[in-house]
Amino acid sequence: MMHRNKTRVGQLALGLLAMSASGTALAQGTVQNSAPNEAPNEGATTQDIIVTAERRSVNVQKAPLSVSVRTGQDLRNQGKYNLSQILENIPGVSGGASSGTRGGGTDSQETGIAIRGVPSNDSAGGSIVSSVPTTAVYVDDIYSGLGGTYDLDRVEVLRGPQGTLYGRSATAGLVATHTANPVLGDTSGWVLGEAGNYDLRHLSGGVNVPVGDKLAVRISGNHIARDGYDARDGGAFRTNEGRIKVLFKPTDAFTALVGAAFQDNLTHTGEYGLRLTAPDVLTKVPLGITEGKNRFRQYWAKLDWDLGPVSLTYIPAYRTWHQDADILVLGQTTLRQKQYTPKDNFLTQEFRASSSEGSKLTWQAGLFYYENKLDSQNTTTVDATGSLAFQALTNKTTRDTGVYAEATYPLTDTLRITGGLRYDYTYVRNLQAYTSNLNFPTSLPENNVTKVLTAEEATKRFKNFTYRARVEHDLSPDNLLFASISTGFLPGDVQVVTGAGNKPEAVTYSEETLKSYEIGSKNRFFDDVLQINAGAFYYDYGGYQTAVNVGSPFIPNFQKVTAPARMIGGEIEILIRPMANTRLGINASYVHAKFVDRTAEIMKIISQERVPNIPSTTGNAFAEHDIILAGGSSITLRGEVIYRSDYNLLAITQANLAANPNSSAYIRSKEMVVGNVNVGWTSADRKYSLSAYVRNVTNNRTASALFFTSFSPITATGTRTDPRTFGAVLQARF
Questions:
Q1: Nearest-CA neighbor of 26 among 65, 85, 70?
Q2: 5 lies in a domain?
């Protein structure tokens, strides 16, 4: 749907406003550190946060890139325990798995995160076009790491391609979560209990134990369970997870951190499906109940050597995943999917060298290796008869080797330049056998055809070069300007999909490169009472690939298309501390993400100009105030409003649009305004706290995902955004 010129001018004005201030790095209303015994506020000034966004410790206001931070303590107080909730008020970011569990393979992540208009690996047509996401997720410096939502220290979100330092998947940006590390010489612990509607039960805790003066151990665990939002059993989940970290520091020059983690989760699906009966009207349809089990194990280490002029870091990690799940899919014919993954193992190793602290030339260089071996069986049958619809047997190996270097040099005391290069070589071998029943979904006898990838079809190799060039200038100690040109890449992939005539066919997805132009600024004024950070960007995504179903919903024909895209927009974040105990904030983002240079063939497959699953405008405003009580305890009041504009959930072909011109109304996710409130009490010694929250106060919901089951007449199934939730969180520290 085309925008009117008047609306476009207003939206571009927001982008120009962001350009005038520019670079987003703000811990929204949560800039205080999360130390357990810290007073809530020390003076009417914004607080400093140290981040490691570029793999070196730096004040977030001095980091010349767009990064937002959320602290673990504030997320716990607000009842935010999954990635979707953590990211919901970060400008320019949308998506994130909302179930609190992971349901995809090691490399897929299936977080659904979109940053600055760059969509996730969910294609415009509703299928996964590549197993590699466009946003990289790191936990404790581990790619696709485990257990990043409990015993949490902070979450850093980097907007814009981070290909030079992070490589694969960092096309749109990066989400880096950091859990609490062991502390030498400190005996302490904490426990958290939470209860809420939908029978939410949450228990989490951790303990830090020193062993002598050179060794410390930190053990933490987490249990969370609740019922489904739209049915008591369907959608219910339970997660049990734990982690142990051991810190060994025999000398000032050497540190070893060794860790192990596990996660077991159980998710129920079914009981009811949601059928779209009118635009934005989802009606319950009875289904059976199925369940899915996931089991993760991870082992890793981080070794640091300080050799004087050079520091060395080595990070090995190994993780396994096992899945056994049944899923019911509502449609004209109800389907049952059996997803079984006996093996999904990955290994990563990273070795890097960097300049010592205080060096005039700041540099780092490294080697990265990634290997993933996957065996999976995915069988889809007709639930009523048990007859086969589709089956995919997969044995896949992916290897990625990267080498990179980046350096920053000061031309003057206030002017610095940065340059970085990276090369990645990716090997993919997908030995897959894919079977389609040509008579599905009719009642005729099965007529199965199997496609087995040949060695030539199954093996692909991809090469990617990425770079970064940046200049930054200190206007004053409190005002920073920067501009950059950078690239990010998505390695290619090969998969078997259902093609024309319900027959399987192999599809190769080429590597993709995004080029980014960005300007930004970070500012503090009036003795740190006011903080304004903003950024503006222009993206050239010439190789964007997607797959759209050009067939009927239940006899699909997914056709690959390369549709060049452009993204232009900006963000602004403002934090005000008018009084020592009051924090006010507002942020906003705008992105115009559209397909460009559309040929007649592209327009035939993708009838809309706008890139699906991307809201053009998002915003957030909050107010937070501390009331100091007699005796030193305090009450914190917080209110928050989150806005998101409407957007298309899927792309529609011209043929489907012609069959039902009203179909464009069915794929819209309406604009949303969501209010959250939080009231918390903290004891004078900071050891005890109790908070209560209500999320989505007005119970405003809309469609969040969609799958067509018929185009004429239109019927579809889907999911909805989270309803109103409320709960209380009790924490104790010792």
A1: 70
A2: no
Residues 6+ apart with CB under 8 A from 365: 352, 353, 354, 403, 404, 405, 406
Q: Measured between alpha carbons, how far is 230 from 192 in angstroms, rounded to an integer?
A: 27
The residues near 99 (Cβ < 8 Å, ≥ 6 apart) are: 82, 237, 267
Q: With contact defined as beta carbons under 8 Å apart, do 468 and 419 qualify?
A: yes
Within a domain: 7? no
Task: Decide if 328 contacts 290 (C-beta within 8 A).
Answer: yes
**CA gap 179, 282 in Å, rounded:** 38
Structural domain count, the chain: 1
pLDDT tens digits, 507-521: 888 888 899 999 999
Give the CATH number, domain containing residue 403.
2.40.170.20
For residue 249, give the nearest of 203, 217, 277, 225 by alpha carbon: 217
CA–CA separation, 282 and 272 (whole Å): 11
Residue 8, phi-psi category: left (phi > 0), alpha (psi -120 to 50), beta (remainder): alpha
Q: What percent of the chain has pLDDT over 90?
A: 52
Give the predicted TM-score (pTM) of the model: 0.87
Structural domain containing residue 97: 17-733
Please give the full DSSP string across 355-372, using - where no structure is assigned. Answer: EPTT-SSEEEEEEEEEEE
In a domain, 8, yes or no: no
List Cα–Cα distances, 613 to 40, 482, 618, 703, 707, in angstroms.
38, 30, 13, 11, 13
Residue 190, domain member (yes or no): yes
Both tokens assigned to 116: 């600055």
